[in-house]
Amino acid sequence: xxxxxxxxxxxxxxxxxxxxxxxxxxxxxxxxxxxxxxxxxxxxxxxxxxxxxxxxxxxxxxxxxxxxxxxxxxxxxxxxxxxxxxxxxxxxxxxxxxxxxxxxxxxxxxxxxxxxxxxxxxxxxxxxxxxxxxxxxxxxxxxxxxxxxxxxxxxxxxxxxxxxxxxxxxxxxxxxxxxxxxxxxxxxxxxxxxxxxxxxxxxxxxxxxxxxxxxxxxxxxxxxxxxxxxxxxxxxxxxxxxxxxxxxxxxxxxxxxxxxxxxxxxxxxxxxxxxxxxxxxxxxxxxxxxxxxxxxxxx
Amino acid sequence: xxxxxxxxxxxxxxxxxxxxxxxxxxxxxxxxxxxxxxxxxxxxxxxxxxxxxxxxxxxxxxxxxxxxxxxxxxxxxxxxxxxxxxxxxxxxxxxxxxxxxxxxxxxxxxxxxxxxxxxxxxxxxxxxxxxxxxxxxxxxxxxxxxxxxxxxxxxxxxxxxxxxxxxxxxxxxxxxxxxxxxxxxxxxxxxxxxxxxxxxxxxxxxxxxxxxxxxxxxxxxxxxxxxxxxxxxxxxxxxxxxxxxxxxxxxxxxxxxxxxxxxxxxxxxxxxxxxxxxxxxxxxxxxxxxxxxxxxxxxxxxxxxxxxxxxxxxxxxxxxxxxxxxxxxxxxxxxxxxxxxxxxxxxxxxxxxxxxxxxxxxxxxxxxxxxxxxxxxxxxxxxxxxxxxxxxxxxxxxxxxxxxxxxxxxxxxxxx
Lengths: 299, 416
What we know:
Order of helices and strands of chain A: HHHHHEEHHHHHHH
Largest sheet of chain A: 2 strands, antiparallel
Largest interface: A-B, 46 and 43 residues
CATH topology of the largest domain in chain B: Rossmann fold
CATH superfamily of the largest domain in chain B: Response regulator
CATH class of chain A: Mainly Alpha
Number of helices of chain B: 13
Shape of chain B: globular
Radius of gyration of chain B: 24 Å
Distance between the termini of chain B: 92 Å
Strand order of the largest sheet of chain B: 8-7-9-10-11-16-17
Order of helices and strands of chain B: HEHEEHEHEEHEHEHEHEHHEEEHHHEEEE
Number of helices of chain A: 12
CATH class of the largest domain in chain B: Alpha Beta
CATH architecture of the largest domain in chain B: 3-Layer(aba) Sandwich
Shape of chain A: globular
Radius of gyration of chain A: 20 Å
Number of domains of chain A: 1
Structural class of chain B: alpha/beta
Number of domains of chain B: 2
Oligomer: heterodimer
CATH topology of chain A: ABC transporter involved in vitamin B12 uptake, BtuC
Helix content of chain A: over 70%
Helix content of chain B: 40-55%
């Protein structure tokens, strides 16, 4: 913990860690958002979330190689993944939506393995990334550097998140989705085509993952087998935020990014993930105790 | 009635046919004129890229040896072949497949997998069945302190990878009139056996000079972002930054160091070639002045009777696979050459005789000199250090093959 004195000596480092954490957290928050949507509406935990992100990243990469600027590939990757999501729903997911949670876990787990191997066969195992040719901002007398590509992805993530919250609140389809999430049977009685709602929800999730993937390809790297991180982080963020709470997901995502960054700085990189999961356990236990005191229980 | 009888007979015949084909003798590993070696390589999973380099290296060597007349053992000439299985980059699977190769497929001579982790999982199996294994991709020191008698490694062990970088840093400090113990070292590695060995080697060498290790980070395998470590680098200003995280680590640090504009006088990495950091389309000039550890370079003056010189090997490989061979491919080919040499000297296909012949190996290959000590590691081949200058790898250490002078310190980002 000797790095703690560093933070006191040089408070500007806190700013750097904070900014880095927020920017990193935004991309995870995006992936988590999609997972929260699917989980809340369809009661399906999508284990293949990370693979959808990576697939989006690959689509972005190949569009980049074909000559498009990486920023332009974000909406295109999202659109392409929307179609992929629709196909996945029609092929597999619609069969497991109203079944036991375990069955849908198994189904999405199978999809994740399938996607990994397909991507490995189709795209090869070299790590890939795109280069948006953006530079860096220097703030506070060059003590804080902010990579512009990360800021762009942060803005994208927030805008996408906000527009989705708005879409769900305002549009007819959004209403239908929320209705189905509340009570699928009642929604069906009221005349909502729940099958179509499920398909759209899953496709929107895939599109979000596609956009996130394009951002990942810009900032870090994509590789067929590194999708698990995104799945696990999304899952964690959704649990911390709670299912119905979509704004909370974004906040939790950002928060987790910051916490992880600070943990890495203070405790050492090897404790980054461990700290995150310990925090998750603490939050869950704490929340449970709090609710018990208030005589409320998690559904 | 007739229908039933004839269909029963048909079924019986079919079953008999199937039973006969299934009970056909298991492919004996020296059937006819072919000696079949066995290998579990990573064709899927985390190590796919390097696993493919390994397989290509093996295949090229087999092809070349067979072209040049194969191997003569005890007066009879054999061709070589390899039976592969995909270990999925998973140690447990690798061990299973080794058992399968030895028990079911009757393989008597094994080639190693990619990565120390997988080699560590397979070595106990080959040791148990007393099957020799020659490997070129498992550099961890811990493979050689367990008393294995049937394991032979052609590559330099991992703690030597970046030794030269510390030596160079000490030399540069002395040149500037400072004591080597004033050099500050930062180590950022991935949490896997190979990278941890690199770290152990660096820490040992730093301790020898009395240098201070200001950053000692071990990244979990799934982490993608190095911001927290790089912020520490910015705050603590080390003189040497060593990063080892396979291709992903090399790629990430090259980009993120440039993004954050952090100046470090010396940056030493592993796996630069696998990550293709000199590829301008991917990295531009970000990798300039980086020191890269390498087991082998095409510019070295080694040669052998199968491939010719190191440069010839590189040319042959490029013609066959359309990319410059990284050292992972070269060391894999060398492993096969060691077998070709040892099998001929053994004079018989008995595993004990071949094992003894392997232990007595003393040869030069295009990859380097190979001589095994009692524990099975290659003590005749030093590691080399290359610096990226003008977009190309130039050997700067050891002095014997240095083709260029070390540029130290790395020019600041603001001056580039």
